[in-house]
Amino acid sequence: MMHIIMVPIIIFLLIVAPIWLILHYKSQRQISQGLSEEEYMQMSELSELADRMADRIKTLEAILDEEAPQWRKGV
Fold first, then answer.
1. How far apart are alpha carbons 35 and 38 in whole angstroms?
2. Does the record carry Acyltransferase as a key word (predicted)?
């Protein structure tokens, strides 16, 4: 009976645990390194797009305020 329990434990300790530890510390190292150059470029591009969209929204609100001053009350 004891051998039935020992075999999976030994397999876990010899195969699964080392792979698990290697993958864990590899992911921790990647997290601590921060953004890659590609990720930084994507973040910059998204930030620029968000700024442009905010400007467009302000322009549209200004136009609506001119042409339909009551439009905000409908929201």
1. 8
2. no
One-letter identity of residue 20: W
Task: Identify residue 50 by its one-letter amino acid code.
Answer: A
Q: So where are the chain's domains?
A: 1-34, 35-69
Contact 45, 38 (CB under 8 A): no
pLDDT tens digits, 40-72: 899 999 999 999 999 999 999 999 999 998 988
Q: Are 12 and 20 in contact (CB under 8 A)?
A: no
Give the span between the Cα atoms of 56 and 64, in whole angstroms. Answer: 12
